Amino acid sequence: MNHGDPVLLHTEGRIRHITLNRPRALNALNHSMVQRMTEALDAAEQADAIAAVLLTGAGERGLCAGGDIRAIRDDALAGGGTARDFWRDEYRLNARIARFPKPYVAIMDGIVMGGGVGVSAHGSIRIVTERSRIAMPETGIGFVPDVGGTYLLGRAPGELGTHLALTGEAVGAADALLCGLADHFVPSRELPGLIAALDVCTTPADVVATAERYAVAAPAGELAAQRDWIDSCYSAGTVEEIVERLADRGVPAAKEASVTILAKSPTSLKVTLEAVRRARHLDGLEAVLDQEFRVSSTAFTRPDMVEGVRAQIVDKDRDPQWHPAELAEVTEADVARFFAPLGDGELGLGPGAPAAR
């Protein structure tokens, strides 16, 4: 094992460890890391000696802050296609994780955002801690929730997922559990003991029982107490109506949400709302990933993603100039273009398509 590798692999007992190892970049995913993880899962599935997979992130700050969006922006500026190749393999990995036949334990400690959600929240045993901050913040960079994020958020209770998708708000452990993004809360101080206990498990059932044994009740979150205004406001038919309801609700948190939303890309907001609502009616994760690939491929050609990454990551002036700049300027036809079939360029994971490997 080369400790300079961006993905570290080793086996303890019958547990195959996968460690994302770019701590200075908050373990942001690149294409080679996705390929390495896919190969590791293929090998672990085929090995009778492996009972489960354990995913962790190197460093103290988090599991994974998402995809390497600076590299994606550079590719867009160069008119390249490597970002689409990355997404194609990344989304296939997300599907691979969701149907992995052995326990896939993800330690979602610290920051878990975007692509980090994709490699963890589709797992079968998802552990959060008091340090967990989980988000799909794509509307703030002129992009859209992907990696199966619209599948997960579309299935959250009530309109909680819509709220998180539009605002990009990060949630802690209790709210992640409430929204179906995680399964168990384990205090961070107990993680070394949990991992050591997992390493001596000999069967998948032992792995499941061990995770349950270490789980305790999470400290109270915020979203449960906000369900009334969230469900009422976000059930509106359009982003404009949602913002209006939030602003008029008379609740400080709702007003704050309206201000947060209006700072995001108008195009991203409208496409995100449509994507989450369509995802609720699609036939499973793989069909949603097919939809997300169409949306991502179109977003890649639009100006807002390049501008959003510039403002948030490159220049860090936090002053993106969206095009168009107002919600009213984004038409239904504009939104529909993001969902148009890609012909031979489809991802092809959904019903009737070849299985993703």
From TrEMBL:
EC number annotated for this UniProt entry: 3.1.2.4
Keyword Hydrolase set for record: yes
InterPro entries: ClpP/crotonase-like_dom_sf, ECH_dom, HIBYL-CoA-H
Keywords: Hydrolase
Pfam families: ECH_2
Chain ranges passing through the membrane: none
Residue intervals of the Enoyl-CoA hydratase/isomerase domain: 15-339
Catalytic activity: 3-hydroxy-2-methylpropanoyl-CoA + H2O = 3-hydroxy-2-methylpropanoate + CoA + H(+)
Protein name: 3-hydroxyisobutyryl-CoA hydrolase
UniProt organism field: Streptomyces laculatispora
